[in-house]
Amino acid sequence: MSFDHFDYKGVRFAKGAHTEETISHAENEFEVFDDDIYNVTYPKSGTNWMIEILNLIKHKGDVTKSNVIPIHFRSPWYEAVGCQEYIDKMDSPRILSSHLPHHIFAKSYFKSKAKIIYTMRNPRDVIVSMFHFTKILSLYTPAENFQNFIEDFIQGKALFGSWFDHVKGWMQMKDDERFFFITYEELLQDLRGGVIRICKFLGQELDDAQIDLVVKHSTFKSMKENPMSNWSQIPSEIMDLSKGAFMRKGISGDWKNHFTVAQSEYFDKIYQEKMKDLNMSFFWEQSS
Ligand code: PPS
Question: Are 230 and 224 in contact (CB under 8 A)?
């Protein structure tokens, strides 16, 4: 997995998208407001899906903003280069995205009442999604050797570091009332049920018709067809959609089309070893 990078507190970041200054600012100086909502994920785990859901919930299912504002401006990544100017203009409650691991997250968050929604996805499908993403996002050198890609992912050489450390870090907050976690696979299986649980966590009262609208406009099909949600507004020098789609397949279990039996067994062994101390079983372990 090749990209021009720098490491910060043991985590890999992409030059161009981040600088040591933006990461240090995000960690040490960024001001969290009590009514902020943070959409936190490891990359390729459903970040954009959650941006769509949370913004639709905020607007009680009204799709107007989703149809006119590109998705990356609706909930900017607060650690990324150039995002502060959009964040400064946001209405409250701000819905912000982040791929930061727990140990680099904004210090001011931990003294606030702000809420975090953490979405996780089967790491095997994260690997596949990221593998294809390297072909369209210019900061990457397109990946060709899948075996090496799996190895780099396991070694924490991916953008935002180790998936295992990310999940284990954030799961330290699993019993905190400001923290809610959900899996991509649960959303796939029951989007409406997921939306209702998220509303409850946020204290947002939507009626049945409003919930139906949130669901309708956050399906894979709706988002793929919406030019403001499918990343087609991004210049092709940054993301070249002639080489693949950002809204690629939107399914669980695509890893079975990519991993050999040997790769799958190898990954399972590493997964068991690295996750054993967490003592948690995730939804994808039952569903994939
Ligand atoms: S990123 O680049 O890290 O912000 O990517 P992220 O948004 O986290 O993940 C991209 C994958 O999520 C899929 N996606 C969806 N799946 C189902 N339903 C909806 N509505 C949806 N929106 C985005 C997207 O297709 C990527 O997964 P893959 O497996 O590549 O298709």
Answer: yes
